[in-house]
Amino acid sequence: MASIVELLTLNNPVFKSYVFWTGVLVLKMLFMSVLTAMQRFKTKTFANPEDLLSPKLKVKFDDPNVERVRRAHRNDLENIVPFLIIGLLYTLTNPSAFLAINLFRAVGIARIVHTLVYAVVVIPQPARALSFFVAAGATVYMAFQVMVTAAF
Fold first, then answer.
1. Structure pTM?
2. Cβ(128)–Cβ(78) below 8 Å
3. Of 5, 37, 63, 109, which has the fewest Cβ atoms less than 10 A away?
4. Angle, in degrees to the nearest 10, between helices 97-115 and 127-151
5. CATH number, domain with residue 135
6. Residue range 85-142, pLDDT digits in tens
């Protein structure tokens, strides 16, 4: 049985993959704030009076383009944060490197695709649903494995 110290080192390919995909997804979530700001400037839609670029503009909360990006960002927070927690715990179960690395990869790529088809180049369903369920399914699988490992 590997110790926690051995599992949480960059010599462990599972942990190394987790660290890489965590970095990718954190940067992706941070980029969503930039994408929201870009949409606000593009549409001249600002939520605070001090942000208005001109006295002719008014505070507005309902621009569909801005709201789409904000919903995508909120979806990231609802799904990536649980992955960050459960992915680390899953690493501690000493899973198969092949399976774990591919689960982390699937979550990372699916979350990027989700943003692309939801907030950047809107593509009709089922593109968004498929990307959502790939990441959610992988995260649920890891959570289940963590629970089973901890229970026995």
1. 0.89
2. no
3. 5
4. 150
5. 1.20.120.550
6. 999 999 999 999 999 999 999 999 999 999 999 999 999 999 999 999 999 999 999 9
- Asked whether 45 and 39 are in contact (CB, 8 A), the reply is yes
Handedness of CA 82, 7, 22, 102 (dihedral sign): negative
**Total count of residues recorded for the chain:** 152
Nearest CA among 95, 117, 133, 77 for reference residue 18 = 95
Q: Report which of 1, 79, 69 is spatially closest to residue 32, judged by C-alpha positions.
A: 69
Amino acid sitting at position 126: P
Q: For residue 40, is it within any domain?
A: no
The tens digit of pLDDT for each residue in 31-65 reads 999 999 899 888 888 878 887 877 777 888 888 89
Asked, for residue 93, whether it belongs to a domain, the answer is: yes
